[in-house]
Structure formats: C-alpha cells, structure tokens
Design goal:
The protein is mainly alpha-helical and about 100 residues long. Helix content is about 80%, strand content about 0%. It has one domain.
Length: about 100
C-alpha cells in the first residue's frame, strides 16, 4: 500500500488534506469563523498537509494512521447516535 501511495503523489496529498480537514472539523471546530480567518485556517492546513505528505513519501504511514483516527471517530459518532436512539425509547426521568 505504501508503494502505491508513493507512486500516486497527487492522490496521496489530496487524501491527506481531506483527512486533515475532516479531523479538524470534527474535533477542533467550535463555531464558524469569518471568511478571511476560514481561508487562513485552510491555507495553514494545506501547508501542514504538505509536511505530512513529505513524511508519507518518506515511507511513514501517515495516511494509514489518519485513516485509523477517522475510523475511530466515526465509530464514536455511531455509538453516540446509537445511545441517543436507544435512550429515546426509555423514560430517563428520575425522581
């Protein structure tokens, strides 16, 4: 897999950038920012994604590690939705 990512650098960079943006939006975003600040944040993320891309090309498993992090975040979100759905049928009122 690492060789395939190294043979396709544009796909690797886009994947790293998308994973970085998803992790940022899911974990660190509190509220919407003004447009200029939003653009600056995404530019800094693009630069940081390039640094991670260089490490990926240097044979470190950046995409695989970020994919595991995203998978764990999706499992947590699924669990939260499941708990919310299960809790809706019960009377949670305590006296």
């Amino acid at each position: 897999m690492q060789d395939w990512f190294q043979a396709h650098p544009i796909i690797s960079y886009i994947l790293i950038l998308c994973l970085t943006m998803y992790i940022f939006n899911a974990v660190f975003r509190v509220q919407r920012l003004p447009l200029i600040k939003e653009i600056m944040v995404h530019l800094v993320m693009a630069i940081g994604a390039f640094v991670l891309f260089v490490l990926q090309i240097d044979k470190l498993p950046i995409i695989q590690c970020m994919s595991v992090a995203v998978a764990m975040m999706l499992m947590l979100r699924g669990r939260q939705l499941y708990d919310k759905w299960k809790g809706r049928g019960k009377n949670t009122k305590t006296t």
